[in-house]
Cobyrinic acid ac-diamide synthase (Chloroherpeton thalassium), 345 residues
Amino acid sequence: MGKVLAVANQKGGVGKTTTAVNLAASIAAAEVPTLLIDIDPQANATSGSGVTLTEEAHSIYEVLIEHADIESTVIPSSMQYLDVVPSDINLVGTEVELIDVPERERVLYHALGSVRKKYDYIIIDCPPSLGLITLNALTASDAVVIPVQAEYYALEGLGQLLNTISIVRRHLNPTLDIEGVLLTMFDGRLRLSNQVMEEVKKYFKEKVFTTVIRRNVKISEAPSHGRPVILYDAQSIGTKDYMDLAYEIFKRDGLENFTVAEHSSIKKAQKDRDKKSDAGQGKTEKPSPEVYEPDADFEKSVNDILNESPEETLNMDGALPYENHQDASAPAPGDEQTDDQEKEL
Ligand SMILES: Nc1ncnc2c1ncn2[C@@H]1O[C@H](COP(=O)(O)OP(=O)(O)OP(=O)(O)O)[C@@H](O)[C@H]1O
Ligand SMILES: [Mg+2]
C-alpha cells in the first residue's frame, strides 16, 4: 500500500507546490512509483510537472464531483516512475459543490482506493486554505508535510493548521501523522532565516525535517519550463535539497537502499526532453518563458472590467443582497454598529 502525503499549509506562497512537485520527482527518480495529485484549482503542480493535457483529459474535479475513476485521470509524466492527476480551474467551485455530498470530507479517501496499491508514494498538493478540499486531502492521507517559509511570519497561522489536523484526527482520520515541518526558501546568510529555524525547532522539535530547502533560482525557474528542478538542472542546489528530502523520508520508511546518483531514468527523461525541443526548433519557437503570459481570455476579462461603467456594477433596482430586501432603505445587518462607531469618532 502506498504512503499518502499531503503537502499543506493554508498560508499562500510558502512552497507547497514546489515541494509537492519536486519531492514527487525526487522519489520517482529513485525508481519508486509515485503519483502526484494536484488538488488546487490554481493547477500549478499540473503545469509545473510538465504533463501535457489533451482535450479529453479528466481532472481531479471529475473525481471529486462526478465520481470519475481516479485511474482514468492519471497522466504519465516524462519521468518513467512519475504519474500525475491534474487539476483544473473547475475546482474553484468544488468547496460549494461538495457541501451536500454525503461524507463530503471522505470523497478523496474513497476515490484513492485503487491507486493506493499501484504507487509507493502519493503526494497531494493542497490549496492555500483549510476548506473542504484540504480536509479531503488530510482525510485521505497518512501524513502531512508542512512547508514553512523561512521568513518573519513563518509561524503565523500554523496554529490553525494544527487545530485542523487535530480535528481531522478526532473525527475523520485517527492515524493522520505529521511527517514533518519543512523549512523552505532558506538563506543561511540571513540572521532571520536562522532565527526562524530555531523558532520552528523550538516548537516542532524532532518533527522538523533535517533537510532544509535553500532559496535557489533554479527552483523558481523550473516551473516556467514545465519541469521539476531535477529535469531542469540536475546539478543545482534545488535538486540536491529535494533529493535529500526524499532520502530523509525513505530512511524513515526503511527504504534507504535506493540510489539515485546519475540515475538512468533522469538521463532518459532529459534526453527525451532535449530530443523534443530539438525537433521543435524553428517551428513554433516561443520566447523564453521567463514570465508567465496570460492568454487572450485573461486580457479580455481585464479589459471588460476596466471598461465597465461603475453604474453597471451597482444593483440598479436598489435591492440589498440580503434575503429580506423588501425595505431597501433599512440598514443592512451590521450597519448599525458602523453608525455607532462613526458617532463615537
Ligand atoms: N527554494 C526556493 N527557492 C526559490 N524560489 C522558491 C523556492 N521555493 C518556492 N519558490 C518560489 O516561491 C513561490 C511560491 O512557491 P509555491 O508556488 O511552491 O508556493 P505555494 O505554497 O504552493 O503557493 P500557493 O499557496 O499559492 O499554492 C514560487 O514562485 C516558487 O517558484
Ligand atoms: Mg501551490
